[in-house]
Amino acid sequence: MLESIDCRCTRCDHALDDEQFRLAMTTTAGTRHVYECGCGAVTVTVVAEDRIG
Ligand SMILES: [Zn+2]
Hints:
The chain is mostly beta strands.
């Protein structure tokens, strides 16, 4: 189930989209998406996934 995620830069509040997407990291806590805004700030978001087991 995918919903629109309101993902914004922590510094300038600019909307973060595929254009700012840099990399995804999967840890035991979930998947994190790293975005690099045009202002230079890096924002990390946590993506909830239904991947148990
Ligand atoms: Zn920014």
